[in-house]
Amino acid sequence: MLVIGLPDNPLSALVVFRLVGTPLVWRLAGCATPPPDPSVTALLTREVPSEAGRRDVVQVRLGGGGAEPLFGASALLSVLARADGYLVVPETATGLDAGDPVSVTLYR
């Protein structure tokens, strides 16, 4: 039996399952190369701060060709309800600047 432990906050649980759980389920189903999640490229509408050495997942709302970062506590369902997808700030980055092109993974 396989058990995947998830955080108790809804937003955190969704992010962890999307990044860790979904690929694991595909692998266990015998799929060596899981299909990619749908994504779009958009320009950030404002700065996204981050610390080097830390991977951040930021919820975003899309509109007018831009990706607006949505900030809030991981326990707030309102952040998730407003989000069209998320972007990942890599560990090597110290943040992203407004106007930077980013890849937004869409929620289906």
Element layout with pairings:
Elements: H1 10-28, E1 39-44, E2 48-49, E3 56-63, E4 66-70, H2 77-82, E5 85-89, E6 95-96, E7 101-106
Parallel strand pairs: 1-4
Antiparallel strand pairs: 1-7, 2-6, 3-4, 3-5, 5-7
Main attributes of the structure:
108 residues, alpha+beta, Beta-clip, 23% helix
Structure description:
By secondary structure, the protein is an alpha+beta fold. The protein has a domain at 37-106: MoeA, C-terminal, domain IV (Beta-clip, Beta Barrel), CATH 2.40.340. 23% of the residues lie in helices and 31% in strands. The strands form 2 sheets. It has a 5-stranded mixed barrel. A two-stranded antiparallel sheet has the order 2-6. The longest helix has 19 residues, at 10-28. The protein starts with 9 loop residues before the first helix and ends with a strand.
Question: What does this entry show, briefly?
Answer:
This protein is 23% helix and 31% strand.
N-to-C CA distance: 28 Å
Element order, helices and strands? Answer: HEEEEHEEE
Q: Helix content range of the residues, please? A: 10-25%
**Biggest sheet record:** 5 strands, mixed, barrel
The total count of strands amounts to 7
Spans where pLDDT lies below 50 across 5 or more residues: none
Roughly what is the average pLDDT, rounded to an integer? 92
Q: Strands across the major sheet, in which order?
A: 1-4-3-5-7
What is the CATH class name of the domain at 37-106? Mainly Beta
- The 3D shape can be described as globular
Q: How many alpha or pi helices?
A: 2
**Assigned CATH superfamily of the domain at 37-106:** MoeA, C-terminal, domain IV
Structural class designation: alpha+beta
Report the CATH architecture of the domain at 37-106: Beta Barrel
Radius of gyration: 15 Å
CATH topology of the domain at 37-106: Beta-clip
Strand content: 25-35%
